[in-house]
Design goal:
Elements: H1 2-21, H2 26-62, H3 65-75
């Protein structure tokens, strides 16, 4: 009787091995599920970034507002007959802002 119990226990362990540690075992399935979740998260981040870039490209192609905004903030340009005012808080030093060069022709558009 003791031999039969031991044999059945060994068979049970042999059957359980592929279930836990085998090629399609539960541990490997959990690993793959974690990888799939990470890939879904990364894809969602990339889709959000692509949507933002797409809207920016569309805005740059269609409207002049984005071009004008970039010229103001990145290149410190101002329109003709426009006054530039910079407000500096206490304890902050005002950094000199380079002005855009004047256009050669008087009728040339300035962003």
């Amino acid at each position: 009787m003791r031999l039969i119990t031991l044999a059945l226990t060994v068979l049970l362990l042999l059957i359980q091995y592929p279930l836990w540690l085998g090629k399609g075992g539960w541990l490997r399935v959990k690993e793959f599920e974690a990888q799939v979740d990470a890939a879904h998260k990364k894809n969602a981040e990339l889709l959000a970034r692509n949507a933002k870039l797409d809207s920016e490209v569309r805005d740059l192609k269609d409207g002049t507002g984005a071009v004008e905004e970039r010229a103001r903030y990145e290149l410190s340009m101002i329109k003709q007959n426009e006054i530039f005012i910079q407000i500096v808080g206490k304890g902050q030093a005002a950094a000199p802002v380079p002005l855009a060069p004047k256009p050669a022709a008087a009728d040339a558009p300035v962003p």
